[in-house]
Amino acid sequence: MRAMLGGVTATATLPRDAPAASPEAPLLSVRGLTLHIPVPPHTLRAVDGISFDLRRGETLGLVGESGSGKTLTAMAVMRLLEPPLSDLPRGKVLLEGRDLMRLSETEMSTLRGRALSMIFQEPMTSLNPVMTVGRQIAEPVVRHLGLSARQAAARAEEMLRLVGIPDPPRVARAYPHLLSGGMRQRAMIAIALACRPSLLIADEPTTALDVTVQAQILDLLAGLQREMGSAVLLITHDLAVIAETAHRVAVMYAGRIVEEAPVGSLFAAPRHPYTRGLLASIPLIARERPETLPEIPGMVPGPGDRPAGCAFAPRCGRALPRCAQDVPPFAPLAPGHHAACWNPCDG
Amino acid sequence: MSAAVSAPEGQLARVWQRFRRHRLALAGAFVVALLMASALFASVFAPQDPTLLDTSLRFVPPFTDWRYPLGTDELGRDTLSRLLHGGQVSLTVGLVAMVTTVLTGALIGIAAGYLGGIADTLLMRFVDTMLCFPQVFLLLVVAAFVPPTLLSISLVIGLTSWMEVSRIVRAEILHLKEQDFVAAARALGASRTRIMVRELLPNAAAPILVAATLKVASAVLMESYISYLGYGVQPPLASWGNMLTNAQGYFDTVPWLAILPGAAITLTVMGFNFLGDGLRDALDPRLRMDP
């Protein structure tokens, strides 16, 4: 895992002004999302029946190590998986009550960029190198909102201003290779938010950027989210990013959500041994350097050697005999705090 | 921060910088420009009517009579005028055939590369089949059935030479479609057609442009072949190919009648090839992406 910012726990325990729990239905409701990929002779359970809700104005952080299924979850929600994976996802993805999994490709493409949008990890390659930045913002606006070319160009400059890019008219006429990584990620955010989508999926939006720029981009995302009231699904392997940005956190391990909680409660009192291990492996800037950084023993199980029960059981110090046999249910342990564990840590 | 953003013209300027360093390409561009101009203004520059017969002045050698600067042929027609008008024909055929080739090749290449699967297999096996036949035979077979006009000759040449272009474009698309910006475009709701036309095609422009210049050269050559074999541009209309055909009976006595159109063909083909080479270097995608 990457080097983390110091003082993660300090920021994490601060209460965050999460949007008040509203009686209205969640904006996004994922139920039993499954992506089983046949990899003969095994089946890779890349996403294994995950469920979560996301309300308007809320940020849900989806954390997990590489290969835990975070990005595939996002791609499945956006219905962006390419053949041969495109027909594999099962389950429900309800956006404002509509099941995205049942929509046709044409219906889906009218929603992408408008109702739900996505920012990718690599700002250096996610922009079309031979189209000006302004056009790349304007095109979806023309397509989705039916604005004239002139209005769309004005919207493009307005968006560039909104994401804090200096001299928007000039940048709108520029090609992506003239922009730095941070500027490009700002431009990507401008493109993704130009049609004011109600859901934004950000897949590792800051991983490719250096730490100071990371903080700026996260602040920008949080600010825009407050302003537009969008819900954000923030995917990252970086707990520091989650601590700074998310209201709630879902921790993924081997295709399942193992723990979900408000950010403060997760960082203060992780209940799942995996979450606890993750948090313990964050290096803190301390006067006395510890001899070794605690780490979780073992590796994420491959598709062939997945135990019948909890996927974390072989690496878990608290494993009970039944952990290897039965999948633990995703059970509430405290208000808003769920974990899938037979022998959870104390709260 | 704004200093990091230089003028949008930067990209074109860099391409020109690299192109300029390529001496042969510059020479090629110059020759091509000269040929285009002379073909465009053939009727202005030509001292005589290219079809005017004067049997009293047959086989005038070059540089001996100011009215016939490059001499006359077996029917007393002015060679320079026929070269200029023949150039018009050859370059028209070259350009029209190139456009046909590039359109067909790019269309099939993009469809095969982006759609993949069964569409890719079918299209590429069709390409393989077409490539099995030497182009000259394909040309002659079709030319035997289609009445030879300027347009039909160009189309026939174009429609028998697009296969390489489609392979080049397909390879380029296979590489491009895995790029993040294509996924990003889909995430913004772009349809397949829009992705092919707006995202992929412009990014494949460099290899297509290079292939296009090289195809002009080969189309000029093809026109000469089939005109030489008598299936191409029909007399009395002049083309470099049929000038060569006419000259072959007199090659031992009046060699300049063959040498002059031959030189014109060579010059054109070399000019376009050098231009294409220079463009390829200048537009190299690995250099294009540098920060």
From TrEMBL, chain A:
One GO BP: transmembrane transport
GO molecular function: ATP binding; ATP hydrolysis activity
One Gene Ontology cellular component annotation held by this UniProt entry: plasma membrane
Membrane topology: Peripheral membrane protein
Localization annotation: Cell inner membrane
UniProt-listed CDD domains: ABC_NikE_OppD_transporters (cd03257)
Family: Belongs to the ABC transporter superfamily.
Name of the protein this chain belongs to: Oligopeptide/dipeptide ABC transporter ATP-binding protein
From TrEMBL, chain B:
Record key words, sorted: Cell membrane, Membrane, Peptide transport, Protein transport, Transmembrane, Transmembrane helix, Transport
Stretches assigned to coiled coil: none
Gene Ontology CC: plasma membrane
Transmembrane segments: 24-46, 89-115, 136-157, 254-276
Mode of membrane association: Multi-pass membrane protein
Domain of life: Bacteria
Main location, first listed in the record: membrane
Domain ABC transmembrane type-1: 87-276
Protein location: Cell membrane
Example of a GO biological process term: transmembrane transport
A Pfam family assignment: BPD_transp_1
Similarity annotation: Belongs to the binding-protein-dependent transport system permease family.
Protein name according to UniProt: Peptide/nickel transport system permease protein
Organism ancestry: Bacteria, Pseudomonadati, Pseudomonadota, Alphaproteobacteria, Acetobacterales
